[in-house]
Write a structure and sequence with these properties.
Largest sheet: 5 strands, parallel
Number of domains: 1
Bound molecules: S-adenosylmethionine
Number of helices: 7
Distance between the termini: 38 Å
Number of strands: 5
Shape: globular
CATH architecture: 3-Layer(aba) Sandwich
Strand order of the largest sheet: 3-2-1-4-5
Helix content: 40-55%
Length: 187
């Protein structure tokens, strides 16, 4: 079984609990307003084409759609996407949901003004390849907006120190943080 099959299986099994966790928070006005503020500040002003990678149950994609952008959400876990469909219908919002690999999203080069991602990078395989592919999908002057966290404490642990993932994280973290902090155009 490939690493990706294991990762996708994990998220398919987590879909119910993830949906519950996300939707119970999403109902709180302050929580929703804060995420809207974050994405508004990170993305182009209006009516942009945005690809939300690892969209899951769709919280980011729907928040961004509510800001007036045209959003595509891509994920490999179909149980997570089923929740995203449901959440979009409940809120009366339109998002194009696509089953696909966030590492190599199957879209034409320069077909988006921005790529967004929340809580994906930590669980992603082949981060270098993904970053290169996302960069290629973004039109000149566009944005890459990533939000993530260090989910497992204590950090670093002996186990994670030995893994390639931590090494990858260390290498990319300053770059990722820099992109968010400065809202630097990617090209
Ligand atoms: C922690 S959830 C985050 C969901 C959503 N972005 C959010 O902010 O609530 C991580 C998601 O990334 C997806 N994912 C992980 N690796 C992926 C890959 N290679 N391609 C597509 N989706 C992937 C999982 O299926 C899962 O839905």
């Amino acid at each position: 079984m490939s690493v990706q099959t294991k990762i996708t299986g994990y998220w398919d099994r987590r879909a119910d609990s993830y949906q519950h966790n996300q939707e119970s928070q999403a109902g709180a006005a302050e929580y929703a307003a804060e995420w809207a503020r974050i994405w508004r500040s990170a993305l182009p002003e209006s009516h942009a084409d945005v690809l939300d990678v690892g969209t899951g149950t769709g919280h980011v994609a729907l928040t961004i759609a509510e800001l007036g952008h045209r959003v595509t959400g891509v994920d490999l876990a179909q149980q997570m996407l089923a929740k995203a469909h449901h959440n979009a219908a409940t809120r009366g919002l339109e998002v194009r949901w696509v089953v696909g690999d966030a590492v190599a999203p199957d879209f034409a080069e320069a077909s988006f003004d921005a790529v967004s991602g929340r809580y994906l990078v930590w669980t992603l395989r082949e981060i270098d390849r993904a970053l290169r592919n996302w960069h290629a999908l973004i039109r000149p002057g566009g944005r890459l907006a990533l939000v993530d966290g260090l989910w497992f404490r204590p950090w670093p642990t002996t186990t994670t120190k030995r893994s390639g993932r931590l090494w990858n994280w260390r290498r990319h973290r300053p770059w990722i943080r820099g992109s968010i902090a400065s809202k630097r155009p990617v090209s």
